[in-house]
């Protein structure tokens, strides 16, 4: 049984598909039925929008994922094509017979140039080789590590160029950066000289050094090279009861992590640190059991520096002030 208030004075009951009129004339009853149909239509439309919205949101890309969740992007394909160059005929590159954008072309005997390929077919062949041989190696050697699309593409480019071996990717400066073992600046610098020896000549190849530089540039293209500009911490209000949970909201420009510092404000004007908390979240919650005056500030930081917030002050009471 559904009850509807109509025109602020009368009610109508809907029961088993029938309307019962309480003080409504025929015109008002028709208006009420029309309102109900509109309400139901809007309700159904809202439900459909929510369902469709959830479906669309589920397909949205995320900024970071594990390598098992990523595959080569078209930008990554284009990056590798530019590094490899195109050859319509088979050629011997010092390690294998290649064709198109560096895909394998059988044995050395095929280096005579008798085979040919179009650019479109060469891209298809390169993509197939990347998916079947090189992406699995990247995933094996970066298992469980979080990275963004550009970082994954750069590692695939490196693996397409070198093969990746059994530990070459894992031991690379770029993956050491992902594990937190090297800074961005150190990893980018070291990677420029990583696996740059020409297998045919045994000498350092300037072309390979340039490729590593470009791969590092792609890898770090989504990383902010500047220190944070500012940090801010806020509370919903600044007077609390003992035992209540306070949530500190943390924000910054360019920061990737925060250190939260909470102090008691002493009667002599000094401060005593009671809590230091490190987090990558944008909020921090805790309760205070002891009444008193407190303050909080945060420091945010990234690879290139840090920034401090202004200090905020709040008070905890044992009863409502």
From TrEMBL:
Q: Which domain of life is it from?
A: Bacteria
Q: Which GO terms describe its biological process?
A: cell wall macromolecule catabolic process; defense response to bacterium; killing of cells of another organism; peptidoglycan catabolic process
Could you tell me the EC number(s) of this protein?
Answer: 3.2.1.17
Reactions the enzyme catalyzes: Hydrolysis of (1->4)-beta-linkages between N-acetylmuramic acid and N-acetyl-D-glucosamine residues in a peptidoglycan and between N-acetyl-D-glucosamine residues in chitodextrins
Transmembrane intervals: 40-62
Q: What InterPro entries does the record tag this protein with?
A: Bacteriophage_GH24, Endolysin_autolysin, Glyco_hydro_24, Lysozyme-like_dom_sf, Lysozyme_dom_sf
Broad EC category: hydrolase
Please name the Pfam families in this protein's record.
Phage_lysozyme
Q: Does Secreted count among this protein's keywords?
A: no
Keywords, comma-separated and alphabetical: Antimicrobial, Bacteriolytic enzyme, Glycosidase, Host cytoplasm, Hydrolase, Membrane, Transmembrane, Transmembrane helix
Molecular functions (GO terms)? lysozyme activity
Q: Which family does it belong to?
A: Belongs to the glycosyl hydrolase 24 family.
For this entry, the protein name equals Lysozyme
């Amino acid at each position: 049984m559904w009850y509807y208030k109509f025109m602020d004075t009368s009610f109508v009951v809907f029961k088993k598909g029938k309307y019962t009129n309480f003080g409504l004339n025929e015109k008002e009853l028709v208006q009420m039925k029309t309102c109900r149909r509109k309400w139901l239509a809007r309700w159904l439309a809202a439900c459909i929008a929510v369902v469709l919205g959830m479906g669309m949101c589920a397909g949205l890309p995320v900024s970071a994922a594990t390598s098992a969740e990523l595959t080569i992007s078209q930008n990554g394909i284009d990056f590798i094509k530019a590094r490899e160059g195109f050859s319509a005929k088979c050629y011997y590159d010092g390690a294998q017979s290649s064709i198109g954008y560096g895909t394998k072309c059988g044995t050395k005997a095929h280096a005579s140039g008798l085979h040919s390929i179009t650019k479109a077919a060469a891209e298809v062949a390169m993509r197939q080789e990347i998916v079947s041989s090189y992406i699995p190696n990247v995933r094996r050697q970066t298992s469980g590590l979080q990275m963004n699309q550009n970082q994954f593409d750069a590692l695939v480019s490196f693996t397409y160029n070198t093969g990746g071996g059994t530990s070459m990717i894992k031991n690379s400066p770029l993956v050491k950066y992902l594990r937190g073992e090297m800074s961005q600046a150190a990893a980018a610098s070291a990677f420029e000289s990583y696996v740059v020896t020409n297998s045919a000549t045994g000498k350092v190849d300037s072309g390979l050094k340039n490729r590593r530089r470009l791969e590092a540039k792609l890898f770090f293209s989504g990383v902010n090279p500047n220190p944070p500009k500012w940090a801010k911490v806020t509370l919903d209000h600044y007077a609390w009861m003992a035992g209540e949970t306070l949530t500190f909201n943390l924000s910054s420009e360019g920061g990737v992590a925060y250190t939260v510092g909470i102090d008691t404000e002493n009667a002599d004007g000094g401060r005593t640190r009671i809590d230091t908390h490190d987090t990558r979240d944008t909020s921090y919650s805790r309760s205070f059991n002891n009444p008193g005056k407190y303050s909080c500030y945060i420091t945010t930081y990234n690879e290139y520096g840090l920034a401090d917030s202004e200090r905020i002050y709040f008070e905890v009471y044992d009863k409502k002030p």
